[in-house]
Amino acid sequence: MSKNDEYLANAAECQRMARFTRNESEKRTWLEMAESWLRLIHPSQSSELADRFDALEQHGARELRSRTEH
Predict the structure, then answer these.
(1) How far apart are CA 37 and CA 12, in angstroms?
(2) How far apart are CA 19 and CA 16, in angstroms?
């Protein structure tokens, strides 16, 4: 597993945790952590990984994408 794949997996796990928490403060923290993992992805591969992350995202919360696109 490459570092970028690891970062993507960690971001997806943070997103999953955000979906399951009921506390809004904790949800924001999980989503911020996911964004932090995504920022570590090497730019040359970010579009490919972003496509894969979008596919994962279709199964859960859509908040992360809107927050990372702004």
Answers:
(1) 9
(2) 5
Choice between 64 and 27, residue whose per-residue pLDDT is larger: 27
pTM over the 0.85 mark: no
Q: On the CB side of 20, how many CA atoms lie within 13 Å of its CA?
A: 6
- Judge whether 54 and 16 are in contact, CB under 8 Å: no
Per-residue confidence band for 42, with pLDDT thresholds at 50, 70 and 90:
confident
Angle 63-19-64 from CA coordinates, rounded to 5°: 20
Closest CA to 30 of 68, 6, 64, 5: 64
